[in-house]
Every structure is written in structure tokens, then in C-alpha cells.
Write a structure and sequence with these properties.
single chain; 5 strands; alpha+beta; two-stranded antiparallel sheet; 3 domains; 27% helix
């Protein structure tokens, strides 16, 4: 029950922190806003938690805290600067999460990407011969080296993911926690 109250406070604070008079809406109905599903998921239990914590929020230094959360982080959270860039948020530091385990659907995931798709994303290297994670932080890729018949480039993790998803035409990566192995 207390964990659900904490989650209620995190969700309320997250939403309040994102209220803006510059947009016609404040949260997305997708993972862009913590997978907000709207009123369709409100039931008596959720309604009672909302009422029990009415007016309560999470604060830091007199303002609303940035209460981002995730269903699964692969057993280890990361620093805010690694996850989103920007300024360091002192209370959003990477650490092991002993409660995050392989029971969650997003803990383990597989994506198959062909060499042709990688080559399409990076035509400047020609036909891709190898992709190697060259730098990691919190066991997640930071930089990747792509070697092809026309040369080698080093790219940032986010740029790699964006380029692959653009070449394939859909979202593939569930998180930044992945490894790569090229099939022969």
C-alpha cells in the first residue's frame, strides 16, 4: 500500500511539473510521459490512493522534484545526465535496483537488425562488417564503432538508435540497455 502511495505521489508530481501554458496538453499518452493511460485505468483502488494523498507532492529545494520512473531499468538505474543529457540532477543518480528483475516484460528484449539495415542507416561506411560498443557507462552503450567496406565511424548511442529506427521506419529499442552481436 505504501509503495502505491509513493507511486501516486511520483505520478502526480511528474504531471504537475509538466504543466505548461505553451501547449494545448501537458502529458502524452505514451512512454514519452511515463506511459500515461488516462482515466481509462482509474479504478476504486487508484481513486482511493489519489484521495488519500490529496495535495501531497515530492519536492526538492523548494520546487517540484523531477519524479521520473520506469517499469524496468535492467536492474540498474543511470544518472540523469546519461539518460537525458542536460544539467545534473543530484537525486537522480545511477545505482543498482534490487527490486527490478527479470519478471518484468521489458527487462529482457530482443531486436533483430540486419546488416543491410545498419548499412542503410550509415551509407558512408559501405557494407557493414562490424559494430562494436567501444564505450559504456552503467553497462549501457555510450559510443559505438561501425566498420564497413568504405571506412569506420564512431557514433553516440542515441544517434545510433535514432539512425537505425529511422532506417527501419519504426521504434525498435525499448531502452538504452543492450548488447550487439552481428550474425554471420
Amino acid at each position: 500500500e505504501e509503495a502505491l502511495k509513493a507511486q501516486t505521489l511520483a505520478a502526480r508530481t511528474y504531471a504537475l511539473r509538466r504543466i505548461s501554458d505553451k501547449k494545448i496538453f501537458d502529458v502524452y499518452d505514451s512512454t514519452l510521459s511515463q506511459a500515461y493511460k488516462g482515466l481509462s485505468v482509474v479504478n476504486d483502488k487508484v481513486d482511493n490512493l489519489i484521495k488519500a494523498t490529496k495535495g501531497e507532492v515530492v519536492t526538492y529545494n523548494g520546487g517540484l522534484a523531477d519524479t521520473v520512473y520506469s517499469a524496468s531499468a535492467g536492474g540498474y538505474t543511470v544518472d540523469s545526465t546519461f539518460a537525458w543529457g542536460g544539467s545534473d540532477v543530484p537525486y537522480l543518480k545511477g545505482k543498482p535496483d534490487p527490486y527490478d528483475n527479470s519478471e518484468y516484460a521489458t527487462y529482457w528484449w530482443n531486436v533483430n537488425i540486419t546488416r543491410d539495415q545498419i548499412s542503410s542507416a550509415y551509407p558512408q561506411v559501405g557494407v557493414v562488417l562490424n559494430v562494436e560498443i567501444t564505450n559504456k557507462m552503467f553497462d549501457r552503450p555510450v559510443e559505438l564503432k561501425i566498420t564497413g567496406t568504405k571506412g569506420t565511424i564512431v557514433v553516440k548511442n542515441k544517434d545510433f538508435r535514432d539512425a537505425i529506427e529511422k532506417a527501419v521506419g519504426k521504434k525498435l529499442f525499448i531502452s538504452e540497455y543492450y548488447t550487439i552481436s552481428l550474425q554471420k
